[in-house]
Amino acid sequence: PEMPEVHTIVEDLKKYVTGAVVKDAIIVGDYNALPDKETFLAGALGQKVVGVRRIAKNMMLELESGERMMV
Fold it and tell me: What is the pTM of this model?
């Protein structure tokens, strides 16, 4: 998507996911997670989403733990 569309999606996501709790997540493709995929996913589950932001054309969920998830 182009930048204006990404901005619109982020603003809409803020309305719907801020305050929600992560119940499930998957890491697709060759994306990396630190320290490893299993540890990151285990730590993300049960976390509250405290913000949504855009970095270039990427959308990030900010979790209460300080971790970030790209969506």
Answer: 0.84
